[in-house]
Amino acid sequence: MSTERYLPLARPVVGVSGKTGTWRIERPVINYSKCIKCGLCWLYCPDNVIEIVEGSAEYVKIDYDYCKGCGICSNVCPTKAISMVPEG
Amino acid sequence: MIKPLTGNYAAAWGARLARVGVVSAYPITPQTTIVEKLAEFIERGEMDARIIRVESEHSALSAAWGAALGGVRAFTATASHGLLYMHEMLWWAAGSRIPLVMAVVTRTIGPPWNIWTDHSDIMGQRDTGWLIMMSEHNQEVLDSIIQMFKISEDPKVFLPGIVGLDGFILSHTTEPVDIPDQDVVDRFLPERRQPYILKPGDPLIMGNIPSDLRDNVKMRWDIHRSQERAKGVIRDVDREWAKLTGRSYGGLVERYRCDNAKYHIIGMGAWVGDMKEAVDILRDMGYGIGLVKVRYVRPFPGEEIAETLASSKGVIVFDRSVSPGSAGPLYLDVLSHAYIHGVRVPIQNVLAGIAGIDVGYDDIIGGVTMFINALEEGRWPLPSKIQWYFGGGEWWP
C-alpha cells in the first residue's frame, strides 16, 4: 500500500484555465492623460491582471491575455480614464 | 484537582488545557456555556487565545478551520441546527486534512422546535470524514477533548474530530471532574502537527478543481484509510492517557460485564450510564447480559464489536436517532460489520430517547427482557426487528 498522502493542494500559476482573455467582449482602454495614478483599478481588478509600473508614463498596464473585460476598472476609475471598447 | 463541572464546562476545560489558540463559535442551546466559559478564561488571562465572533455557524467553523490552516490549534462548539448549518464546512475541513476539534452538544432537530437531546445531529455527520465520538459522562468529555487533539494531529490521521456529549443530561448537569494538571497535559500533547500551513508569501491553493478525477478519488480513499489507521492511534492514546491519569475508556469501545455474557446491549452516549445500571440489575435477576459501549462512531469499531458478538445469542442496539425509511444508524453499522466479519446473530433495534424522551434503566430493562424472552420462547423476531419506544412502556413496531 502506498504511503503517499493525497492532499487537495496546488501551487498558483499563470493561466491554468487557458487564455481567458478570449472571453472578452469589451476591452478596457486607458487614456493615460486622464490617469491620476490612484491605483484603484489595480486594487479592484478581480483577476489580478492590472500591474502598476512605477516611474512609467503608462502607470498601469493591463494583461489582455487574461483580462475578461468585466469593466470593474472602468467603473471605479474616478477620472473616467478607462473606457470599454467593443472587441472587433 | 477535583471540581464540580457541568459537561459544557468540562469541554471548555479540555480546550483550555489543550492550549487552544483560537476559539470561534456562534451561540446555540445547549452549547452556549462552553464558549461562554472559554471567553471567561480568556478575559481573566487564564488562557492565551483569541475569540472570533461570527454571524453564523457556517462562519464559526470556517473561521476555526481558517485559523487551523494557518497553524493554530483551534476549537469550536455547536449543536443541532447549528451543526446542520455547518455541514458543508465539515466536508471542507475533513477534505483539507487539517486537524481541528469541535464539541457537539447533541440536540434534536426540528421541526418542531425542541432543545432536548437525541443523536440526529451528530449521526448526520457520519460521512463527512470527521472522527466522531460520544461521551458517557463529564470526565470523559474533558479527557476526550484533550485526546481528540492528539489523535487529530497524528500524521497517521490528520483529520478533524468531534467530541459529542448529550445536551442537558451532560451539558448542564454537574458532576465531580478531575482536572489534570497543565504539565500532565503538556507532556501528553506534543507541539501541533499538520500536513501544511497556509501562510503569506508562500501561496498555496487548497481544494482547486482536480486536473485528474482519479486524484479526487484518491483523496477520498486516503481519508477512509486514515480513519482505519486512526483506530490504532485511538487505542494507543487511550493507553497513554491511562498511564498519566489512571483513566482508560477502552479506546473505541468499552465492554461492560461481557465475560460469559449470552446477550449484549449496544449503546452510545450518556444513557450508557443507565444501561450499566440495567445490566447490573439484569445480572442480579439471572440474565447473562453484557454491554458494549460504543465510543467512536467514526472510525467504527467493527472488529471489536464483531469479536464480542461472535459468541452472543442475541443483541439489542439502542439508537437515539433514526434514518427514516431504513433504521437506527448505530444498528445499521453494527449489522453491517457483524455481517462483514461473518457473525450471524439475532440483532434487535430499539429506537428510543428520540426527541429527548427520558429513558431510564427501568425502560432499558423492559426492552431487554421483552427481547430476551421472545428469543428464548422462540417468538423472535417480534412484530418488527426495528421497534420504537415512546416512554412509559409504550412500544410500536
What does this structure look like?
The complex is a heterodimer of chains A (88) and B (397). Chain A is an alpha+beta fold. Chain A has one domain: Alpha-Beta Plaits (2-Layer Sandwich), CATH 3.30.70. Chain A contains 2 helices and 5 strands; from the N terminus they run ββαββαβ. Chain A has helices at residues 40-44, 72-76, and strands spanning 9-10, 26-30, 50-52, 60-62, 82-86. The radius of gyration of chain A is 17 Å and the shape is globular. In chain A, 16% of the residues are buried. The model of chain A has no long low-confidence stretch (mean pLDDT 92). Chain B is α/β, with parallel strands linked by helices and 397 residues long. Chain B has 2 domains: 2-245, Rossmann fold (3-Layer(aba) Sandwich), CATH 3.40.50.970; 253-396, Rossmann fold, CATH 3.40.50.920. Helices cover 40% and strands 19% of the residues of chain B. Chain B is built from 12 helices and 17 strands. Chain B has helices at 7-17, 33-43, 57-69, 80-96, 120-123, 138-152, 182-188, 213-245, 272-284, 302-309, 329-340, 361-376; strands at 2-6, 22-25, 50-53, 74-78, 101-106, 131-134, 161-166, 174-178, 205-206, 253-256, 263-267, 289-294, 296-298, 314-319, 347-351, 386-389, 395-396. The radius of gyration of chain B is 21 Å and the shape is globular. Chain A binds chain B through residues 1, 5-12, and chain B through 95-97, 158, 195-196, 203-208, 210, 215, 218-219, 221-222, 225.
Q: How do the helices and strands follow one another from N- to C-terminus of chain B?
A: EHEHEHEHEHEHEEHEHEEHEEHEHEHEE
Oligomeric status: heterodimer
Estimated radius of gyration of chain A: 17 Å
Number of helices of chain A: 2
Q: For this structure, what is the CATH class of the largest domain in chain B?
A: Alpha Beta
Q: Between the first and last Cα atoms of chain B, what is the distance in angstroms?
A: 48 Å
Roughly what fraction of the amino acids of chain B lie in strands?
15-25%
The CATH topology name of the largest domain in chain B reads Rossmann fold
Shape of chain B: globular
What percent of the residues of chain B sit in helical stretches (DSSP H or I)?
40-55%
* Tally of discrete structural domains of chain B: 2
